[in-house]
Amino acid sequence: MLDYKLLEALATVLECGGFERAGETLGLSQSAVSQRIKALEVRLGQPVLVRHPRLAATPAGQRLLNHLQQVRLLERDLATALPTLEAASPRLRIALNADSLATWWAATIGAYCREAGVLLDLVIEDQDVGLKRLRDGDVAACLCASAQPIAGARSMALGRMTYLPLATPAYVARHFPDGPNEAAFRRAPAIVYGPNDQLQHRFLARCGYHGPFPHHLCPSSEGFVRLASAGLGYGMIPRMQVEARVAAGELISIAPGQALEVPLYWHFWRHSGELLAGLTARLGEAVLQ
Q1: Residue 5 lies inside a defined structural domain of this protein
Q2: Considering the domain boundaries, does residue 177 fall inside one?
Q3: For residue 2, is it within any domain?
Q4: What is the spatial distance between Cα 179 and Cα 224, in angstroms, rounded to a whole number?
Q5: Peptide bond preceding 53: is omega within 30 degrees of 0, i.e. cis?
Q6: Domain count, the chain
Q7: Cβ contacts of residue 274 below 8 Å, gap of 6+?
Q8: 170 lies in which domain range?
Q9: CA–CA separation, 226 and 275 (whole Å)
Q10: pTM for the complete prediction?
Q11: Which of 57, 153, 205, 251 is 20 to 30 A from 16 (CA-CA)?
Q12: Cα(202)–Cα(262) distance, rounded to whole angstroms?
């Protein structure tokens, strides 16, 4: 039989990014947490953690984390059916992209989380890489751009987000007086969310440009809009996030008529209980554009 205290130690070490912080979260010493991980590895006869070059779960550790995620959700269902059982407030660890969090996510799931007493543990990942978190057992569900579910999981199409290449009118007049062209792309500063963000590259490729370009890195959806609004660069911004600014003429497209459509899919474990099923049903009501 599995000792779930050992599994909780494994999950907490990875969620906290280290043994010391995991010990503080669990109310244990760093040594005690390390001993629990060693006990789990002795029981399995193989390692569950890789410590270098970065802390990560081994394939065996990933399978245990997947199992623990589903057990946590099923225990919530059992506590609901048998009220005499004490259960902590359920916490759902979910990977989603920053743009969804900055726009439609809270309004869509807020009422359900309040009604069900759900606590969220949100992991911000680009929509192109969020699925890896689910595969690694780090999250119970994720938003990503891939329609193909991993083994043991399901996916549901939520719609798509429309991204526009926006900047201030003054910026466009200064850097794109002749419209989008190779010379302008080579010198005009862009804004990119992070190293995994490929939206800018996709836009430039659509315009026929495949070379290097100067760019700011800004890992904040709100900060991204602020940089563009301050005239520091142009970038791919969700239309729903800046409708008012576009309508007021504060931000304009550097390539009128050009847009990128990014599909979003909700991925979740097949046997994850009623709590996640309820959240999934609520997400099915989302209207993305």
Answers
A1: no
A2: yes
A3: no
A4: 22
A5: yes
A6: 1
A7: 76, 77, 80
A8: 161-262
A9: 36
A10: 0.75
A11: 153
A12: 11
